[in-house]
Structure formats: structure tokens, C-alpha cells
Amino acid sequence: MNFFSVFNTSASALSAQSVRLNAVASNLANAEVASNTPEDTYKPKEVLFQTVLDQNNPSGTTTPVRVLGVISSPAEPVATYLPNHPLANDEGYVFKPAVNVVEQMANMLSASRSYEANAEVMSTTKQLMQRALRIGSQ
Description:
Number of strands: 4
Order of helices and strands: HEEEEH
Strand content: 15-25%
Shape: elongated
Number of domains: 1
Largest sheet: 2 strands, antiparallel
Helix content: 40-55%
Radius of gyration: 22 Å
């Protein structure tokens, strides 16, 4: 294992978690947005990760990650009876995205902690490299 592979792995995780945080922010921002048809309702976003196998690292001690894609959730919109709402359809229903705010907050906390942990890994690795250079120059 070399220090640069640690940087590569942590940087890939920072990038992936940033995409995850953006998806959560989008889901939370649109959680209460109503529409008059299920088709026009915001679809919550989900981020798919994939590990990247490294030919130069067959042991797999540091395995980078990448975003495979951002997909729309298959969850059906929630129909709510609000006959006085300006977007209510002929039956008096509006449709809201199937966004579980508590789940999204937990997802945001998890992504944030992962981001922080990987930033700390990069900082610690940098310090170790600097100490190794100082020892080598003495």
C-alpha cells in the first residue's frame, strides 16, 4: 500500500458522498412540493455506488468508489385529499413525493460523517507523509 492510493480512495469517497449529500438536499427541498398528477410529482433521487477494482492493487487494501448513477425512486407519490389546494385535481387530491424526511435526515447524517471521516483520513495521511520525509532527510 502506498500513500497515494489512500489519497485516491479517500478522494473518490469524498466525491461520492458529495453527490449523495446533493441528492438528499434535493429530496428534502422537494419533500412537500405538490402536483395535480402522479406523473408530474417529484421523484426522490437515490445514489448508487460501485467499487472500482485497481489492477495495481490486487490485494484490495484500498478500493476507490465511484457513483454508478443517480436514479429516481420507484416509490409511488402520496395522494392527499386537499380539495381547497390550488393544485387539487377534479377529485380533490394533490400528489406529493414519497420522501421520508426522517430517512433522508439519517442518510444526510451518514453521508456527512463519511465525508468527514475521509477528509480526516487524507489529513492524517498527509501528516504521516510529512513525518516520513522529515525522518528521511535527517
